[in-house]
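Hypothesis: this fold can be encoded by more than one sequence.
Test: take the structure tokens below, design a sequence, compare later.
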């Protein structure tokens, strides 16, 4: 890993007695906020590739990018449009082949921003300037709070429902408020029950009795996507919006101590088998929160 005046680089070195081969590529795009980790992408002309080394936050170390072979540096893994759909607001693909990594570089809009969830905003912006607060201006932007529960869940499921779905339409064609089933074939059952590579919060939550027995429950019952994540303990308040701590089976033995950590027992942190990095012979797993709210054995 190298820093120079022109940016940050990953350099791979292969040496034998007679030869030394090196390859250097610049870190052009960072994927991930870094809460769990970061992966890096580089441009080669208008083709986008993933770099072989990632950063793992919990272990505070550089690791082989998940899924890469240990002991070798592969610079040939393409960053496909689906990867970009979940991790950026927009990029225009230059081919309709879903395996492609050819893009219009200038079209890239980094981050997951307002328009990902609220749809195109130009008309709303123009109207808010000419007629601030008018009903017309308000109706010129999508507000997920007014979607049905199914459509609210679909919006989050675009990115939080695992990755193993067959696509019916190309990346970036989904518009919030539309049924996701028009864009993807339904996830195979096995995906819904596994903790997927990138978390499958939608599939897991939908299996919970909380969700099934509460017609208004959505991801927004606990998360405000507009604000930074809060402490784990503060989520207990969300549980207590619907439950009394006294109705927990443990209440009689533990008393009020459980009030601040409902989540530890009922949404345990679990190691995923899916994000795995093999680095210097060691197998490293990431932990994610199980969104199937339930009674777990041994708790
Ligand atoms: C376009 C894809 C996309 C959509 C749509 C999306 N998310 Fe996310 N979300 C992500 C990605 C990617 C991350 C990981 C953030 C990162 O590290 O870059 C994330 C992270 C999160 C986190 C964790 C934040 C943290 O700091 O750890 C929560 C909570 C979350 N999303 C909730 C939601 C909810 C609720 C919805 C639906 C209203 C939603 N997301 C819709 C892609 C998306
Ligand atoms: C179906 C949507 C989807 C696809 C496709 C996808 N990701 Fe993700 N990714 C997510 C979500 C959502 C998270 C947040 C973690 C979670 O949900 O557990 C995430 C998390 C990450 C993180 C950890 C970031 C952090 O600190 O939280 C990295 C790094 C990452 N993805 C890289 C990639 C790369 C590189 C690709 C493409 C080769 C890719 N992902 C494809 C949805 C996706
Ligand atoms: C990951 C998806 C996501 C992103 C990104 C996002 N929002 Fe939202 N937004 C939502 C959801 C979901 C709701 C409805 C929340 C609820 O049910 O309370 C919402 C509600 C709102 C509301 C409230 C509407 C009302 O009825 O009170 C405003 C205003 C808003 N968003 C503005 C923004 C702005 C500005 C940005 C960019 C800085 C942004 N949002 C980014 C998902 C998102
Ligand atoms: C929107 C309301 C709502 C929220 C928020 C909510 N629950 Fe529930 N929960 C319910 C309902 C309704 C049931 C089903 C009760 C029944 O069938 O008797 C339930 C059932 C449960 C069960 C029994 C599960 C089983 O499989 O038997 C547990 C445990 C539970 N909730 C814990 C929690 C925890 C912990 C939280 C916070 C992380 C939480 N709930 C948040 C409404 C909610
Ligand atoms: C009953 C409350 C509750 C609901 C509903 C809920 N979450 Fe979470 N979520 C949590 C808690 C608690 C955490 C862990 C926060 C932490 O560790 O700081 C979390 C963490 C996350 C993370 C970060 C990844 C991780 O494993 O830490 C993502 C992404 C996320 N939620 C997405 C979603 C999505 C998408 C939905 C809707 C399908 C959803 N959540 C519904 C309580 C909830
Ligand atoms: C130390 C772990 C632990 C903590 C903390 C905890 N629970 Fe529980 N909870 C359990 C166990 C174990 C059971 C099953 C007990 C039984 O069947 O006798 C249970 C059962 C439940 C049930 C199902 C009761 C039923 O009738 O099926 C609900 C609802 C519940 N807990 C809610 C909560 C809430 C809300 C909190 C936070 C205030 C919480 N729990 C904190 C371990 C815990």
């Amino acid at each position: 890993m190298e820093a120079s005046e022109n940016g940050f680089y990953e350099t791979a070195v292969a040496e034998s007695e007679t030869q030394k081969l090196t390859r250097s590529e610049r870190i052009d795009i960072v994927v991930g906020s870094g809460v769990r980790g970061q992966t890096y992408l580089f441009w080669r002309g208008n083709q986008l590739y993933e770099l072989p080394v990632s950063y793992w936050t919990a272990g505070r170390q550089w690791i082989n990018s998940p899924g890469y072979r240990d002991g070798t540096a592969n610079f040939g893994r393409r960053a496909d449009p689906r990867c970009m759909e979940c991790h950026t607001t927009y990029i225009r693909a230059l081919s309709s082949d879903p395996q492609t990594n050819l893009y219009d570089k200038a079209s890239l809009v980094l981050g997951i921003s307002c328009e990902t969830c609220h749809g195109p905003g130009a008309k709303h912006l123009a109207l808010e300037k000419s007629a601030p607060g008018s009903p017309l201006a308000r109706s010129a932007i999508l507000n997920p709070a007014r979607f049905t529960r199914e459509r609210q869940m679909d919006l989050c499921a675009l990115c939080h429902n695992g990755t193993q779905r067959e696509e019916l339409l190309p990346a970036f064609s989904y518009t919030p408020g539309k049924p996701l089933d028009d864009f993807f074939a339904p996830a195979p059952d096995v995906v819904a029950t596994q903790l997927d590579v990138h978390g499958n919060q939608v599939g897991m939550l939908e299996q919970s009795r909380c969700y099934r027995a509460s017609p208004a429950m959505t991801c927004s019952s606990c998360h405000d996507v507009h604000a930074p994540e809060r402490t784990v303990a503060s989520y207990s308040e969300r549980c207590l919006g619907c439950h009394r701590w006294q109705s927990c089976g443990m209440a009689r033995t533990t008393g009020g101590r459980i009030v601040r950590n409902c989540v530890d027992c009922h949404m345990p942190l679990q190691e995923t088998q899916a994000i795995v990095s093999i680095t210097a012979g060691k197998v490293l797993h990431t932990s994610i929160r199980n969104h199937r709210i339930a009674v777990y054995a041994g708790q």
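The radius of gyration is 22 Å. The CA atoms of residues 210 and 235 lie 15 Å apart.
Hypothesis status: open.
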